[in-house]
Fold these 2 entries.
Entry 1:
Amino acid sequence: MLAGSPQQSYSREEARRVLGISERQLRGWERQELVPRLEEFAFADLIALRSLQKLRADRVAPARIRSAVRALRTKLHGVENPLKEVKVFCEGRKIAVILDGQKMEAVSGQLLLDFDRKELKTLLSFPPEGHGRAVVSDAKTREAEAWFEKGLELEQTGAPPEEIVAAYQRALEIDPSSAGAAVNLGTVFFHLRRWEEAERVYLQALEIDATYALAHFDLGNLFDERGNPERAEHHYQAALKINPNYADAHYNLALLAQNRGDVMKAVRHWKEYLKLDGASSWAAIAKRELEKLRHAAVVPGAAGGGPTVVRRLSPVDG
């Protein structure tokens, strides 16, 4: 059981120690967009991590957890982070949630206990899970997840790229619905400058999970790197449509707008970025660029010069 007060805060190391999880596990959950990356945790954040820890201990796949959380956020008005705000748990092969003392399946909306008439009117049906995808057995899912974790470990220990690629490819072969493995494989290809292969697996990730914001963000980086700012902007905007609080997408959109001379749009995205990520090391760059644009509005032509600004990559890539 977690012990602490709602006002207490925890460092990253303290949070891991309280929960008994490794940095590798936490980084993997962040990369799969199951939890946001934080350096300081409130007690409610620990509750969310504990809920996630229990779901993963019950071998619930990350894609299913993301699907359930999105469904709950959409349908339960006022609930922004279901892992923090309602009791989410695994019941058999289903993800369930306790709402006002009643129990329902998170994704399908199937009632697991009776609701009264008033509650039934407020609950809308959730989208069906799977959309015709092949069902992967529990044993195969566990094997695919083991290969996925192997890929993460190889990345973090600086293993040769071909070994990392092989691990993620094996995860996808065993479980073709592993969007996280597809995105991670695409990022390896991106750093190897194997653009076509990176694009192929990023798009594969979106075929698996059309609301995977990280896949859109990484495609934005890919097209930006290849000199196609229009397609880059399309994917950054798609990431923001899925997750309006995607700070790094605002950062890169600000750079795109600034580079083409769209000062108003650049200012808007810099401001949004600073609202969301104002305490990071990248915030200093954002503040500098915003000040440069404000100065340029007073003194025409003053926006030029200064250090080259690089776009943001995925959080784990720095």
Entry 2:
Amino acid sequence: MLEDQRLLWRLKRGDKEALRSIYEKYKDNMLTVATSLLHDTGSAEDVLHDVFVSFAMSVQKLKLRSSLRKYLITSIINRVRDRFRTKKHHIVELDEVGPIASDSESPERSAILSEESQLLTGALARLPLEQRETIVLHLKADLKFKQIAQMQGISISTVQGRYRYGLSKLRTILDGEMKK
């Protein structure tokens, strides 16, 4: 947190290296969240770019009420929501998904992991946005339910319900896929 405050201070004084440092520190986490919600790496990268351009342009007026990480994740979520509202998003079909890199040693294990990942990605895409967003924020962005509730402006019990119902729907969808 102290490091982020120092980076922001430097950035507000025109240090472009500070912006690069912030980008390098948070880009992977932000891209993971955007990709998990949009299911399209290209669109997720566009969202990440848009958020950082907007962040860089408005940094002089920025007054953080929470951590920089939370601010940037919230910016990603808001930009994804904007895409859904304007219907400019594109959900990638399972047969359009490219190969997923794996550190596994055997080709068989890699194929199994790739297939499982595609099934999970497809199932996640079928959830309502609110449930998908809650699951992604909790599991991929490592946010607590209280943080998600504050970010979304809803109660903790609503967040917990969305998470619970989302996981239940995921199980149902995946059980149906496995029986086919």
